[in-house]
Automatic annotation (TrEMBL):
CDD domains, per the entry: Pancreat_lipase_like, PLAT_LPL
BP GO terms, sorted: lipid catabolic process
PANTHER family: ENDOTHELIAL LIPASE, LIPASE
Protein name: triacylglycerol lipase
InterPro entries per record: AB_hydrolase_fold, Lipase, Lipase_LIPH, Lipase_N, Lipo_Lipase, PLAT/LH2_dom, PLAT/LH2_dom_sf, TAG_lipase
Keyword Aminoacyl-tRNA synthetase in record: no
Catalytic activity reported: a triacylglycerol + H2O = a diacylglycerol + a fatty acid + H(+)
GO terms of molecular function: heparin binding; lipoprotein lipase activity; metal ion binding
PLAT domain ranges (all copies): 342-480
Residues at which Ca(2+) binds: E200, R203, D208
EC number: 3.1.1.3
Source species: Sparus aurata (Gilthead sea bream)
Length: 492
């Protein structure tokens, strides 16, 4: 598998199999050798400092020990310095995501030194061999940063390493070996195979920088391994859509565009990069992630609190919080850019009424807002069934901003409206010995709502106080009412 996974080819800089003597190095093409664990890298790691948004332009190469390069490249030690580190590749070329990420960083941070770490010569091998090079590449980056500290008094707190897949662990080694503490490392779906479960010194970890944030987008296991690492390995670990199935990356979605099964995996793994690019480009609506102990609790809508730093922006806008290891955070996203959406926690007490002991309702909600209305949204109940005579909590996600929520329509799907409901009805009919079961009736008096993005809380009561009961094929409308959230008195 690792030897045949295809990578989308790009055409941004030179193919490293070409004649290296023609590259625009400052003085000559021979780099100082860095001996690490007995092997010299022989200049195989290159530091391409971008000066133009025209990605066809070659850029300028920094070389440790060559002061002329700093002046020629226009290196500004007082500005931010951002290193972008690619992962494993089989093509010998930069992948297409690199173009988008570099352009987005340069537009957002126009004064920054944006440096692409090019280690394709060692990444373009079988995956286990590329893994074995990560420590040496990290050492090489650390040596470059140490030299910049010596020559330019580079402030480490302004250094940000962004590593994708295998490049995230390269960034971890660089942070471990550098003299001092790097300001920030961002891991974009750090690679899982050969890193899952190993000790901290052999992978990206919170000690590698003052702040380590990680986006996990492909933690689904196949053949005993996960392409992206599953375990939390940063100060903050964000799992969009549970870190599992990313919207827009389903087999049907990808095959319709690419016609290649391997592109499904690439879509989910690479989604971390595109979420990060989105965070650089779309400042108007920043995506929020919410702290939670696990994806199942988040899907139930339990974890939408921002109290005590329990929520954060994702991607470039993630805020450093008090040092707290492995804080897991979750959010749902749209299938395409802009990826940000809107989360609502809904609580409703479902009263069992006539003949409804075995009711297994399929609910939908439609949200009416000041700016827009949603379509019917399926209420995903993660305990398997709606609880009767219980308060049910669930998560509703909308892709578009609807403005202030004004009204909610709760619908109970009819017995013939979907295959799911048809099957439920067949089962009920079978167990009632072919007699038509009586029409079940449930009652919902109010729905309490908390908006994740604004943290506002509202209560919605039945628009018609005499219409609070609902049966299959029916709906009840709820409007804002004065009944506030019940607040328990604090114990002294």
């Amino acid at each position: 598998f690792w030897s045949v996974w295809p990578i989308t080819k790009g055409c941004w800089v030179h193919d490293l199999n070409s004649d290296l003597t023609s590259l625009p190095f400052c003085e000559d093409s021979g780099l100082d050798e860095l001996s690490t664990d007995g092997r010299a890298l022989d200049g195989a790691v290159k530091y391409n400092m971008r000066k133009s948004l025209d990605l066809e332009h070659e850029g300028c190469y920094l070389q440790a020990g060559k002061k002329d390069c700093l002046q020629e490249c226009g290196f500004n030690a007082t500005a931010k310095t951002i290193f972008i580190i690619h992962g494993w590749t089989m093509s010998g070329m930069f992948e297409s995501w690199m173009h988008k990420l570099v352009a987005a960083v340069m537009r957002r941070e126009s004064e920054a030194n944006v440096v692409v770490v090019d280690w394709i010569a060692m990444a373009q091998q079988l995956y286990p061999d590329a893994v074995n090079h990560t420590q040496n590449v990290g050492l090489d980056i650390a040596a470059m940063i140490n030299w910049l500290q010596d020559e330019q008094q580079l402030p480490l707190e302004k250094v940000h390493l962004i590593g994708y897949s295998l490049g995230a662990h390269v960034a971890g080694y660089a942070g471990m070996y550098v003299r001092g503490t790097i300001g920030r490392i961002t891991g974009l779906d750090p690679a899982g195979p050969m890193f899952e479960g190993v000790e901290e010194q052999r992978r990206l970890s919170p000690d590698d920088a003052d702040f380590v944030d990680v986006l996990h987008t492909y933690t689904r296991e196949a053949l005993g391994v996960s392409i992206g690492i599953q375990q939390p390995i940063g100060d903050i670990d964000i799992y969009p859509n549970g870190g599992d199935v990313q919207p827009g990356c389903a087999l049907g979605d990808v095959l319709a565009v690419a016609g290649n099964f391997m592109e499904v995996m690439k879509c989910e793994h690479e989604r971390a990069v595109h979420l990060f690019v989105d965070s650089l480009m779309n400042k108007d609506h920043m995506s929020f992630a919410f702290q939670c102990t696990g994806p199942d609790r988040f899907k139930k809508g339990i974890c939408l609190s921002c109290r005590k730093n329990r929520c954060n922006n994702i991607g470039y806008n993630t805020r450093k919080m008090r040092k707290r290891r492995n804080s897991k955070m979750y959010l749902k996203t749209r299938a395409d850019t802009p990826f940000g959406g809107y989360h609502y926690q809904m609580k409703m007490h479902v009263f069992n009424r006539k003949e409804a002991d075995h009711a297994d309702p399929t609910f939908h909600v439609k949200l009416y807002g000041a700016h827009n209305d949603t379509a019917n949204i399926f209420v995903d109940v993660h305990d398997g069934a709606v609880g009767l005579n219980l308060t049910n909590t669930f998560l509703v996600f909308t892709e578009d901003e609807i403005g202030d929520l004004l009204k909610i329509q709760l619908s109970w799907e009819g017995d013939s409206e979907s295959w799911n409901s048809v099957w439920k009805n067949i089962k009920k009919t079978f167990w009632s010995w072919n007699t038509k079961p009586p029409k079940p009736v449930l009652e919902v008096r109010r729905i309490r709502v908390k908006a994740g993005e604004t943290q506002k809380k509202f209560t919605f009561c039945a628009q018609d106080p005499g219409k609070t009961e609902i049966s299959p094929g029916e709906s009840v409308t709820f409007v804002k009412c004065r009944d506030g959230w019940e607040v328990k008195p604090r114990k002294r």
